[in-house]
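We were asked to recover a plausible sequence for a given structure. The inputs and outputs are reproduced exactly as logged, with field labels preserved.

PROBLEM: sequence recovery
POSITIONS: 148
GIVEN STRUCTURE:
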């Protein structure tokens, strides 16, 4: 497994297509993120847990949302936009600089099949230090393998 070359930085520009959020997988969150998302959607925390079928990870005890059956993340709107974009979980904010993407060039290249923003010439250029900071934050939050 060869790491992604980041010495000169990498470009990323989200196209807001929703493809990354439409993949099956889980979005591990924190209690604080659940509170912020519930407030953003004018719901109580209990309503958020019920409405978005939040589950608890057996190993970590942390809450998570499941994107399954090809329906994508339950927080996606019908037009494939994030309903909590301004307060989205760290796992979502870290995309595409997840540790598994930065540590495995093949994973980055494979994600290009559904994410046009990877290495997009018009995308923001993230420096090596910015990328490593995002990866460190993701690791500190104990994020699992993501949706992509």
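RECOVERED SEQUENCE:
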């Amino acid at each position: 497994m060869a790491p992604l070359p980041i010495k000169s930085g990498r470009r990323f520009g989200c196209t807001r297509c929703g493809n990354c959020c439409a993949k099956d997988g889980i979005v591990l969150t924190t209690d604080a993120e659940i509170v912020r998302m519930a407030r953003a959607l004018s719901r109580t925390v209990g309503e958020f847990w019920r409405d978005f079928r939040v589950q608890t990870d057996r190993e970590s005890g942390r809450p998570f949302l499941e994107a399954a059956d090809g329906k994508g993340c339950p927080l996606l709107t019908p037009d494939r936009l994030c309903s909590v974009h301004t307060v989205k979980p760290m796992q979502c904010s870290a995309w595409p600089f997840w540790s598994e993407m930065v540590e495995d060039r093949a994973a980055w290249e494979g994600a290009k099949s559904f994410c046009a923003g990877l290495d997009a010439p018009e995308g923001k250029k993230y420096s090596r230090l910015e990328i490593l900071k995002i990866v460190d934050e993701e690791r500190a939050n104990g994020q699992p393998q993501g949706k992509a």
